[in-house]
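Thread: Newbie trying to understand structure tokens

Hi all, I'm a second-year student working on a class project, and my supervisor (Dr. K.) asked me to get a predicted structure for one chain before our next meeting. I've only ever worked with sequences, so writing a 3D structure as a token string is new to me. If someone could post the tokens and maybe explain what I'm looking at, I'd be very grateful. Here's the chain:
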Amino acid sequence: MEDERDLVVFEDDAGNELTMEVLDYLAYEGKEYALLTELNEDEDADEDEPVEVFIMEVRPVGEDQEEFVPVDEDLAETLIQIFESDDFDDEIFDDGE
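---
Reply by user tm_fold:
Sure, no problem. This is what the structure looks like when written as tokens:
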């Protein structure tokens, strides 16, 4: 059975849609954050190739909807360190830093 993916669709000002996959969630200082990457449905993709990740704050909107809001660079760095320390796959963060 295939794992179910947690997908989020964003729309830019021009109406273009971008589908992102939520890799994981993290609670930090009373707020919820999500680690996301662009959805790659290419089964032949090189798994060793680094992927770009994004961290966004998850805010509840209404009863059963969420809003994803970008975080500032300093907070993103802090959260990435936390995600890394929680035994995430190091390949996600392999950007040479």
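A couple of things are worth pointing out once you decode it. The longest strand covers residues 17-28. The chain has a mean pLDDT of 82. Feel free to ask follow-ups in this thread.
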